[in-house]
Amino acid sequence: MPWSKDELERIAATDDLHISPLRDDGVTLGTPTWIWSVVADGALYVRGYNGQQSRWYRAAIRQKAGRITAAGLTRDVAFEAVEGTVNARIDDAYRAKYAASPYLAPMIAARARAATVRITPKEN
């Protein structure tokens, strides 16, 4: 199930995404973690600032599911690791959205790039 255009626009315009991958029991949501998000090619992406060592990233890749809250929306979601050429467009989206931030350079560097995740809504 894809994001609606309205949902993607709302999430793209905000800076308040909190991600909660499921814990190892596959049922309990983890502690919400504030994280940067971007929209590229009509999809929602996040990256781990600390790369693949980010706790939320490891849980998201292991469990492949959880919840996000952003722009007044709360959605159960699926997580999928992303590699390949789409990362260049994701980098551009980070540059556009977070140009003024001193944290931009690490978010488009190899460590964070290796921890890129696509977030898709699950059907309710």
Helices and strands in order:
Blueprint: H1 5-13, E1 18-21, E2 33-34, E3 37-40, E4 43-47, H2 55-63, E5 65-70, E6 73-81, H3 86-97, H4 104-107, H5 110-113, E7 116-121
Antiparallel strand pairs: 1-2, 1-5, 3-4, 4-7, 5-6, 6-7
- Tell me about the largest β-sheet: 7 strands, antiparallel
Q: Order of strands across the widest beta sheet? A: 2-1-5-6-7-4-3
The CATH topology label is: Pnp Oxidase, Chain A
Mean pLDDT: 95
Question: What is the count of DSSP helices, taking H or I runs of 4+ residues?
Answer: 5
What is the CA-atom radius of gyration, in angstroms? 13 Å
Assigned CATH architecture: Roll
CATH class: Mainly Beta
> How far do the termini sit from each other?
10 Å
Low-confidence stretches: none
| E-strand count | 7
Q: Any idea how many domains? A: 1
> What portion of residues belong to β-strands?
25-35%
Structural class: alpha+beta
| H/E series | HEEEEHEEHHHE
User: What helical percentage do the residues reach?
Assistant: 25-40%
CATH H level, superfamily name: Electron Transport, Fmn-binding Protein, Chain A
Written overview of the protein:
With 124 residues, the protein is an alpha+beta fold. The protein has a single domain, classed as Pnp Oxidase, Chain A. The chain is built from five helices and seven strands, in the order H-E-E-E-E-H-E-E-H-H-H-E. The chain has a seven-stranded antiparallel sheet with strand order 2-1-5-6-7-4-3, with helices on both faces. The longest helix is centred in the last third of the chain and has 12 residues. The N and C termini lie close together (10 Å). The mean pLDDT is 95.
